[in-house]
Amino acid sequence: MLIRSAEVGTFAANCYLVACEETRAGVIIDPGAEARTILEMVAKEKIKVQYIINTHGHVDHVGANEEVRRALGVPLLIHEADGEMCKKPHASLSAFLGKLQLAAPDRLLTDGETLTVGNLTVEVIFTPGHTKGGISLLIDGALFTGDTLFAGSIGRTDFPGGSSEQIIRSIKARLLVFPDDTPVYPGHGPRTTIGEEKKYNPFLR
Predict the structure, then answer these.
(1) By CB count within 10 A, which of 7, 155, 171, 179 is most buried?
(2) pTM, to two decimals
């Protein structure tokens, strides 16, 4: 599996390009800003993008959705509980950044749904708490956790739709059950592992 990332936008969100090395089919996760940077990453690796997937609907993760979708001609996917956020400036927090072209999703995801991308399987794991429709993605043994779980921290819960109790429940019940050596690629900050977060994350004690 090929994984490339770009730190994009004012809020330094991680946008990931994940692809099957054998077929070069791939997905883009959270194109939050800087569409040109993201598209250059795709072109450099010669990836045939199949889907754009948002882990949740906040603007720092969805801000370049429309430009990237238009350039690549592929569907945009998000969990059904966050679908409206992509279209509403106040819900996505994009109202605070001025004029921004928001994109309605092409397809709504549900918990446990799987997508086939080349020889890879992308599994949707419902992890609400940061938003009502937050998801993590399991791809070939790696977790992409959006703003649910970070290295040494967890996602904010003080925005509309957030819940501190729910995000802890999501992390403990849906993410910490994976083996300790499972790599975690978060929505902000450095890569970590499930074992590191079990041992050192102060929010999970």
Answers:
(1) 155
(2) 0.94
